[in-house]
Design goal:
The protein is mostly helical. 58% of the residues lie in helices and 1% in strands. Helix 1 runs antiparallel to helix 2, helix 6 (116-125) runs antiparallel to helix 10 and helix 7 (128-145) packs across helix 9 (176-197).
C-alpha cells in the first residue's frame, strides 16, 4: 500500500476550496434571499460537513506535505466554526492500540454495551455550537487572565471528544500559532455578535450560520455512531480487534460519500492504514478485498450500510 501514500495537492486544495466556496456563497445568498434558503440548508450544510471533515485529514498529514493547507483551512472553516484544527490533536489516542476503546480514548464510548447512550450523545451534539460559542466568547478571554481557568480550559474544553473521562496528556500543549488561531476564533465570535447587534450584518446570517453548524455537527455525530461497533468496554485491545470494531460502509457510492465524506466510508481501512490520504482509500479498499492477507476475514466483517 506504500504506493498509495502520495497526497495529491490538486485534490486536497480543489476539494477544500470548492466546499468553502459553495458553503459561504449559499450562506450569504440564503441569508439575503429566502428563495436560496432551502439550498443553503441542504447543499450548504453538506458542503460545510465535507469541509469540516478536512480537520481529520490535517491531523494525519505529515509535516511539510501540504504547505499552507492547515492555515487556509483554519481561515475558511476552523476559525469561523470555532473548532480549529488543534481541537483534534488528541485523535492519536483513538488510533493507539494502548488506548483505543479505553477511558484514555476521547472518541470512544461503550455504545454497543449501553445502546441508550446513543440517543443521549446525539442530542448532546445539538448543544456543541452553543458550547463552542460560549468557549470563544467568554472562557478563552477569562483563561488569558486566570491561570485556573486556563488549566481547566486545556484539560476539559480544548480537545473534541465524547468521553468525559478522558484527560489529555500534560505535554499536549498548544503552539504559538495555535494560540494565535484560538485568539482569532475569539475575535471572530465577538465580531459576529457585535456586527449582528449593531445591524452591520443581518441577524439572518448569524442564525443561518448557527443552523448549518448544528446540522453539520449532528450529521457528524450520526456518522460517528456508525463508524465503530463500540463493543469494547475498558481494556486495551490488539490491532485486529480494533479493525473488527471499525466499519466499512457499502452500498450506493453517492449516498455514502455525502454522509461519510473525505474517506470516512472506509473507516476500517483508515484504522488499518492511517497514513493513507482520503483519496487513496477507495483503491486501498479494493485491494484489501481482492488480495489474500492474514486479516482479510476480519476486514470483511466490517462491512455495513448507512441505510440500516
Amino acid at each position: 500500500m506504500l504506493d498509495l501514500r502520495h497526497h495529491s495537492q490538486w485534490r486536497y486544495w480543489t476539494d477544500m476550496i470548492a466546499c468553502a466556496t459553495v458553503f459561504w456563497s449559499l450562506l450569504y445568498l440564503g441569508s439575503r434571499m429566502g428563495a436560496w434558503l432551502p439550498l443553503a440548508l441542504t447543499v450548504g450544510t453538506l458542503a460545510l460537513y465535507r469541509l469540516v471533515m478536512f480537520s481529520h485529514e490535517i491531523f494525519h498529514l505529515r509535516a511539510g506535505v501540504l504547505p499552507g493547507f492547515s492555515l487556509t483551512w483554519n481561515a475558511v472553516c476552523g476559525v469561523p466554526m470555532m473548532l480549529p484544527s488543534y481541537t483534534i490533536k488528541s485523535h492519536a489516542s483513538h488510533h493507539s492500540t494502548a488506548t483505543f476503546g479505553t477511558k484514555n480514548d476521547p472518541e470512544y464510548l461503550p455504545f454497543g454495551t449501553y445502546p441508550q447512550l446513543r440517543r443521549r450523545y446525539l442530542w448532546g451534539t445539538t448543544l456543541v455550537p452553543l458550547a463552542v460559542s460560549v468557549r470563544a466568547l467568554v472562557l478563552v478571554p477569562l483563561a488569558w487572565v486566570c491561570p485556573t481557568m486556563r488549566m481547566h480550559l486545556r484539560e476539559r474544553m480544548t480537545y473534541v471528544g465524547m468521553n468525559t473521562a478522558y484527560r489529555p496528556d500534560p505535554d499536549l500543549n498548544l503552539t504559538r500559532i495555535e494560540f494565535a488561531i484560538e485568539a482569532t476564533a475569539t475575535a471572530w465570535a465577538w465580531w459576529v455578535v457585535v456586527a449582528t447587534v449593531t445591524g452591520l450584518w443581518s441577524w439572518h446570517f448569524a442564525a443561518l450560520l448557527l443552523t448549518c453548524m448544528t446540522l453539520t455537527i449532528v450529521l457528524n455525530g450520526w456518522r460517528t455512531l456508525q463508524s465503530h461497533r463500540y463493543a469494547n468496554h475498558g481494556p486495551a485491545v490488539d490491532a485486529r480487534a480494533q479493525l473488527r470494531d471499525s466499519t466499512t460502509f457499502v452500498g450506493h457510492w453517492l449516498w455514502n460519500t455525502l454522509l461519510c465524506p473525505i474517506g470516512q466510508r472506509y473507516h476500517a481501512a483508515h484504522h488499518l492504514l492511517p497514513y493513507l490520504p482520503y483519496h487513496a482509500l477507495p483503491e486501498a479498499h479494493r485491494r484489501l478485498v481482492a488480495m489474500d492477507w492474514p486479516g482479510r476475514s476480519d476486514y470483511l466483517t466490517t462491512f455495513t450500510s448507512t441505510r440500516k
